[in-house]
Amino acid sequence: APTDYQAKPDLLKGKTILVTGAGDGIGKAAAMTYAEHGATVILLGRTEEKLEAVYDDIERAGLAKPALVVMDLATVTDEQCLHLAQGLAEEFGHLDGLLHNASLLGERRPIESATYAAWQEVIQVNVNAQFVLTRHLLPLLQAAPAASIVFTSSGVGRTGRAYWGAYAVSKFATEGFMQVLSAELENTSKIRVNCINPGATNTSMRRTAYPAEQPTDNPSPEDIMGVYLYLMGDDCKGVTGISFDAQ
Ligand code: NDP
């Protein structure tokens, strides 16, 4: 099963992979793991100091020199994404992987009392930003021999749950976006598009969402990297349109 996938040490050698939300939690672990398997990673996130810390960890480990992109997905524009794509085209020429990992938990409360502003922010970060980034990065992904786009879902993106509001709706939208894009690209390109549901993982988002849990009862981000590696490497060429569980 992809969950206990054992990656070759050089699985991602020569590949360039962009990770959103790379400064913390699962995104940070994925960026580090991809770099450890040979990839040049592009670290995208909103908090510069966190991205710099990951950048330094990668450099200190003597891995391929990463790139750093400070971008707030809550306010990101079409122009910013176009500019990002142009910069990456100049520096790398193509993109082998795109991990949409960043997301916002938002408020968990009944729809009856939810606020429109909080709703819009979650949908903006978790859905709209994925669209605008993907839209402008597609040409770079098309330019790679066999690129992989990976979205991040959740259990509440497959079955709705009371009080999970915009977050749950955004994860259903993410599953839908993955399916639409996968279907569009299936016969016309070598890009595969899939989804990962990480499952309960010990990160700051998890600790906020489940304050009563003992954090260390959940696996750490490093423990769930099998599927993250599998989907970025050439062992899963041709696999598309699937929503995986990381645990
Ligand atoms: P974290 O909150 O630890 O990390 C989320 C990352 O997204 C952070 O790096 C954060 O940046 C970034 N981010 C949030 N808002 C923005 C923004 N406006 N612009 C740019 N970056 C932003 O969460 P996890 O690592 O737990 O979550 C990773 C993914 O996994 C998410 O999509 C989440 O929904 C999903 N998931 C997680 C589960 C879990 O148990 N942990 C379970 C199911 C799904 P910053 O650090 O600067 O705030």
From TrEMBL:
Residues annotated as domain Ketoreductase: 15-180
This protein's UniProt keywords: Oxidoreductase
PROSITE patterns on file: ADH_SHORT (PS00061)
Pfam families registered for this protein in UniProt: adh_short
Molecular function via GO: oxidoreductase activity
SMART domains: PKS_KR (SM00822)
InterPro entries: KR_dom, NAD(P)-bd_dom_sf, Sc_DH/Rdtase_CS, SDR_fam
Similarity comment: family membership: Belongs to the short-chain dehydrogenases/reductases (SDR) family.
Designated name of the protein: YciK family oxidoreductase
Organism from which the protein derives: Pseudohalioglobus sediminis
Organism ancestry: Bacteria, Pseudomonadati, Pseudomonadota, Gammaproteobacteria, Cellvibrionales
